[in-house]
Amino acid sequence: MRIAVGQFAATADWTSNLAACTELTAEAERGGADLLVLPEGVLARFTEDRHRIREVAQPLDGPFVTALRTATAGGNTTVVVGIHEPSGDGRVFNTLVALRDGALIAHYRKIHLYDAFGDLESENVCPAEGPPVIVEVAGTKVGLMTCYDVRFPELARLLVDAGAEVLALPAAWVRGPSKEHHWEVMITARALENTCWVAASGECGPRNIGNSLVVDPLGTVRSRLATAPGLIWAQADATSTAAARRALPVLANRRFAVDPTPIPLGAPR
After folding, report:
1. Which pLDDT score is estimated for 267?
2. Residue 243 backbone class (left: φ over 0; alpha: ψ -120 to 50; beta: rest)
3. Catalytic residue among 21, 110, 121, 204
4. Hey, is 134 helix, strand or coil?
5. Which residue among 42, 100, 200, 219 is least crowded, i.e. fewest CB within 10 A of its CB?
6. Taking the chain, what is the end-to-end CA distance rounded to the nearest angstrom?
7. Which of these is catalytic: 21, 126, 147, 204?
8. Which pLDDT tens digit goes with each residue over 219-250?
């Protein structure tokens, strides 16, 4: 599987952000990408008045997704990108869409919300209950995760238990003390403990760190970006994944399963 990961700085104008996604999609298609991972929540970015995220949300059949479906028509690249969609309770869902050849082939609504480091995503975003979502790309199963999800190893393990060899992780990782370190450590840990590939797209710009990465099943960074917009590439293949799992058989050696039963929100921990 040929993987492309793109990053850019989203603006308050969804049409501008659509143009950036369309341009990266065309570049990935020209480069022969099977999978393109783009950032989280790219309909609009606000540094203040986060409630406006409710105003800019679009349904899955809205103009943003429809236009991006058109951009993928006739191509081979599967595009994974994040939007916000109305949830029905006045808030929105933080949703990943997977698009290929003009079709919406899957969507995943973010389970773990970023109520951390002084932020409160749940004020405006409704948490989903799951289940985890996998799409098949070029004969390889790809698990979908969003940003803060990477801090929860059980979700990555559930995806790998379902057959994922690649984890696609769109994100808008907020700047802060040690946050770049957290980002790379978490991505590398999810790759190593599951002997899988992680393709992580971080939105860049004034609020978020960028730093998109592709990490292989033995924790080696195969490609990376810094803080500027761009596109990176990596080649993932079943042979190298299988070799990593023979050399480091953590999946075969483990002694405990992950219980997929959701913990009710607000339950004592």
Report:
1. 63
2. alpha
3. 110
4. strand
5. 219
6. 40
7. 147
8. 999 999 999 999 999 999 999 999 999 999 99
Q: How far apart are alpha carbons 185 and 27 in whole angstroms? A: 29
| Residue reference for tokens 């749940």 | 122
Catalytic residue flag (residue 179): no
What tokens appear for 146 in the block?
């969003």
What is the tens place of the pLDDT at every residue in 193-223? 999 999 999 999 999 999 999 999 999 999 9
Of the listed 21, 29, 40, 126, which one is catalytic?
40
Q: Is the pLDDT of residue 269 over 90?
A: no
Q: Which two structure tokens, joined as six digits, stand for 195?
A: 């002997």
40 is catalytic: yes
Task: Please check whether residue 206 is in contact with residue 227, taking contact to mean a CB–CB distance below 8 angstroms.
Answer: no
Residue owning tokens 């592709």: 214
Query: Any idea what DSSP says for residue 268?
Result: -
Q: What is the b/e burial string over 226-239, where b = at least 16 CB atoms within 10 angstroms of the residue's CB? A: ebebbbbebebeee
If you count them, how many residues does the chain have?
Answer: 269
User: What is 143-173 written as a DSSP string?
Assistant: EE--GGGGG-HHHHHHHHHTT-SEEEEEE--
The model's pLDDT over 24-43, given as tens digits with 9 standing for 90+, comes to 999 999 999 999 999 999 99
